[in-house]
Structure formats: C-alpha cells, structure tokens
Amino acid sequence: MQKTKTTRRGFLRASAGLIGGGWLAANWPGIAAAAEAAASARDAGAEFSHLDPLDAADLEAMAALIIPDDDSPGAREAGVIYFMDTALGSIFAAQAAGLATGLADLNAKVVALDAGAKRFAGLDSARQIELLRREESSPIFGGVRFMTLCGFLAMPSYGGNRNHVGWDLIGFDHRHAWQPPFGYYDAKAAGNGDTDV
Amino acid sequence: MSDSIRFPTREPVDFVIIGSGAAGGVLAKELATSGFDVVVLEQGPYRRPSEFSHDELDVIFNNAYSGGTSGDYPQTYRQKESERAEVTDFPAAYYARMVGGSSVHYSANFWRLRPLDFNERSRLGGIAGTGFADWPLSYEELEPYYTKVDWEIGVSGAPGPFDPPRSKPYPVPPMPLKSSGALLEMGARKLGLHAQPAPVAILSQPHNGRPACIHCGFCMGFGCEANAKSSTLATMIPLAEATGHCEIRPLSTVYKLETDANGRVSDVLYFDERGLSQGQKAKAVILAANGAETPRLLLESESSRFPDGLANSSGKVGKYLMFNSHSSSNAMFEHDLNEYKSIQCTRIVQDFYESDAKRGFYGGGVIDARPFLSATPIFYALNGLPPDTPTWGSEFKRALAEGFTRRLSILGSGTSLARESNSISLDPELKDRHGRAALRVTYEDHPDDLALARFLQDRSVELMEAVGAKKIWRDPVEVQSITAHLLGTCRMGDDPHESVVDRDHRSHDVPNLFICDGSSLVTSGRGQPTMTIQALAFRAADRIRDFSKNNQI
Predict the structure, then answer these.
(1) What ipTM was predicted for this assembly?
(2) Do A184 and B335 touch (CB under 8 A)?
C-alpha cells in the first residue's frame, strides 16, 4: 500500500508513533473495572498490580522526562505510573508484552552507555536525556509517550491525572454545562457588536 | 426496551429495517406511526442517554461506540484496485455501532444541498473517467422533506445569504457564537466573504419535548447525555417504539438477505447477541445500514439467481464511493478561545460553494472553524500542536500548557467526484469473527477533489491570517484513507443499468427491497450529508407507505 497515513481525521497513528494504533486494541469492555481498580489502588497508595517494580521505575523515569515536574506538576505528581499499571493490566493489556520487550532492548543500550547503571532509571539525568533523544522515533518511546499523555489527561478515575493536575495544566475545566461567552473573541463580539481584535 | 413489543421471527412482519441510524430511525418512526409492523435489526447495543459519558479514553481511544478499533470488525483498505488491501491501524470506514447509529456520535452539522447539487452534471457537462451524474430528483421535490427534518429531527439555524428556498423557518434559532465562529466571521468580513450561522441538529432551545444544549463540549464522537443532540436515538426511536408497532432488536448483525422462488426477499438472516443464527421473515425489507454495510450485505447475499450479489444487475453495488473532499489547517491565537466548550461549529463560509471553471478543476465547498480533534484533552495532546513542537520535555510541556485554550482548526469540506474504482467490496482473504468476509475499502480521491482541498485550504489560511493568528499550520492534503462519510455506493437513478435503486429507493431488481441511506446519494454535496440522508428517508417513507397501501410492493 502506498503511503496514505495522514488523513482528515489524522487519528492517533499520525502522532503516537509506530505502535500507536496497536495501543488502541482489545479488551475495551473491561474499562470500567479498570477504572475502579485504579481508583482503589491509588487510594491504598501502593503496590503495583501488573508492573514489575523495576520496569515501573524505568517507565516513570521516562514519563517524567516527557512531562517534567518543574514549576508545575508533571507526570510524576499526576501519578501517570499508576495509570500505566492499571492500563497494562486492562485496556492496554495487549501491549504489555511488546512493552516488556521494548524496555529490555532499551536497557541493553543503557548498559552500553553506563555499565554500572543497568537500567534506564539508574542513569543520571543527563544520560537519560541523551538516550531518550536517540530513541525518539522508537516504538518504545512512542508507546510510553502515548501512555504518559493518556495517564496525564484521562479521567482521574483511571489512576493518573491526580487532582486534575493534567487538566489544570492545559486549562481544561471539566464541568457538565457552560454558558456563553465561551472565550475572549466571542465575548468581544457580543460586547462590541464588532469582532475586530 | 424490555416492555416493547416483540414480533415472532417466523411470521413475516410488514417491514424489516436493517440499521437504526440516521435513515433507519426515520423510516422506523414514519412506518410504525402509519400502523405498519416494523422490526429494526441493529448490530450494536441499545445504549441509553444516561449511559453516555465524557470518558475520552473509553469513547475516543477505545472506540466504545464503534465497537472497538479492529478486533471484531476487521476492515481492509487500498488506494487502487490493482493493490492488495491491508488491515490499517484505524478502520477506513468509521461509524457507530449502536441504536441511533452514527447520528448519536456525530457533530451534527446539518447543511441542506442546493438546487445545483441535483443537476450539476447537466449544468456543467460530464467529466471524463467519472460517474458524475444528475439525481433523478430535484431540490424542489426534496424541499418539503428537508423542512420535515428541520422540525421533526430538530435543527438550529438562521437563514444565510446563499441558502436555497425554504418553505418554513428554522424551528429554533442558531447556537450561540463561539470564538472560532467569531474569528471566522471577522475574517470573512475583512476579505469580503460571508459567514453565516452553522445549521446544526443540536437544540439551542427546547423543542419537541427535548431540552436545549448545555454546551458541555462533548459532541464529536460522544453521545449526548442531555438529549439535546437530535440523534434518531433521541428523536425518532422513542416515537417509533411508542406506537407499539416497532421492535428495536439490538445486537443483531444481519449477514444475508434470502430470496424466494419469485426473486423477492423473504427472510433476513442475522447473528443474535449470542452469535446464533436467526432469521426474521418479512413482507418487505428496507436496507439502511450505511454506505459501507449496505453494499457489503448485498454483495454477501449472492445466490444462483443473483450471482453478483442481490440488486446488482447493474454491477454498481458498492461502486462510486464518495468521502467528501477535506482539508484542515490550524491556528493559534493570543487570547483564550476555549473551543472545548459547546458544539464544534457555529459559523460557516459558503462563498466557494459553486464550481468555478476559472479555478481549473471541478468542485466547490464550505469552510468552517472549530476545535475539531482538539475538543478533548488527550486528542489535543496527540494531535493539536504545531508539527515543529518538541515531543517531550519542558518545551513540550510549555506548548501543551499554552495551546489547548488558544487553538482552532479550520476545515474545508467539499465535493467528491464519483469514481467507479472507489468502492466497498468483500475482502477475498480476511474474515471476521462470524466468518463473514471483511469489508474492503478502495479509495483514491479524484485529482479535482485534491485540487479543491488545496484551494479551500489556501482560503482557510487567508481567513486566519486576516484575523492575526499567531501561528498557522496546515495538515497535508493527501489521499484520504479514513472517513465518516460513506456515500454513493447504491446510487439512485432512472436507468437500471447505471444505478441500484430508483427515485423511490426501490431496488431495480427486487420489488420488495428498498435501500435508503448514504449509499443512495448520486453526488456528494459539499460535505455534510446527514441532513440529506434524513430528508431522503422521510421522502422514501412516504413513497413506501403509498406503495404498501396500494398493494404495489
């Protein structure tokens, strides 16, 4: 097939990396159960249900580079890793094996970079950034980035986006009803009867 | 649902309607209120408005309403007939599987066609290598039914400078202006163009016992929990069921239409929710399963009497698929637009509707401004930022923080030329979970459609430049491999060699088989087909009712 990847709807595959589409697969009816499980795991504050703790440390380190915790909460404070833990046992379960392989490949490169580090999470910050920059177009990066954004911005019931920190960052106020004016330009048009900026 | 009437499968009902969406819902209501017994077979579940949520991960990324991304409903896609079709990451033909069909999850832009859409072939002449044709209907014949859609379905709007004649005003005023609409209006004024309120099938005020929109913002891709979006689930289906003559049978996937010794459809075979094969006998069948599923089912219903598929003596079943031409561009502004609030689209610019030979290609279209894919947070984070934005790190986070409330998309929607090589067919290799051949989409936009898309994109960019956008970026204009518009695949016409159904939606080959949905359209219109699909459905119901009363089926 010829290259026809970008479309009007530009859906996910355009932006989520090579394995982006795959992350959309299977197990969708289990989602409500996943949300419940995530909420209770978070309340308990604790153990991962599906992730190996070492894998979790690598994933959280990557997520924290993708959306850093700086002057505002990032992936770490949002609890993105808890989202991933739940999602990999439910809605993204079909990707768990691919993710494990991707992490193993990545960690093989870690050893080449710093034999003492053993794993991505063990690298110092500069080397983590250096390695991630090299891996920007890899499936593992695409997959972790996709899950990080989902975990940062999905409903908090999935375990991430704690206290709405993701929504707060982008300015999304989740209410069930709004009234006009909605934004600056329609307010101005209504006020002036004139829409010149 | 549980207390609604149940019809026995072994006794023929007056009508089996296949599909409960934009067309099927209208036909069910019209025929049931006329006293006919109707069974509606719908492959998706029966969801209630109270079940609809704002859960983006489930609805958009898990495709809860379209049945999951691929697994159970595999499709293949290719550009050209000479290629082997492949399974793609996202299905080429995108539609909802639920009672109400895609009218539940669409954005509800509701433009009428104009008189020229029906006879453009005669006005402009033929176009070599295409199936460009006139409709067997005129705008004047369809106008009363457009008005019926306005009032019975519920359309908000106000007249615009280019509107075709209408016999009655809109039932409710236009939806309130959004910032995208305000900017489009201002840009149009500066360039000497005309922005008008966008007609939408979403209520600005209470109508027919339904409430007004609460502007929650979860329109495109979502179901409306307020019942303000005028889906057939909210409008037609309850009226049909209230008659006691209509059974909605969800989770019923039709796989074959059986014919009797006289060549009439007698039995509709389907898989029930347990996957067991069932058959519903019918005196007449109305196929309204959408422009992809309808031809698929006809092709699957081949028999010794109908070796090329049912109702396909013309060989046109599945052919002449049209997506509508599309372009999109994006712009960032200094102040907050907050496009995540309220509906998608509040203003449209129709100055480029007519084809103009001076442009050097056939076609015309309409420009609108809206959040598009960035109405919800995750979709925005994945698709909404300029392509030169870093994809991770502090700079990415800063861009993520700034863009959501300040961006919009500007879309050009327009004509597609009918090409015989663009089609829905049965994949020769891939099967679904029931062992049915997977749906295969073959589609390559006509060069004129792509030229139109580029033209409308240029005009879109000028409009955003005129209002001082801080940054503007274009999405590439390329051959489309995904669509929610599935048109033309069982086209209507007077000539049985060139079309599948006649002007009354009766198939040329099978007297008790009617077909009415997006597949009936002869030309694509300028980008928003549902209004026309529903007007056709109201009109078809009138004809079918008359035929039945006069014993002509």
Answers:
(1) 0.95
(2) yes
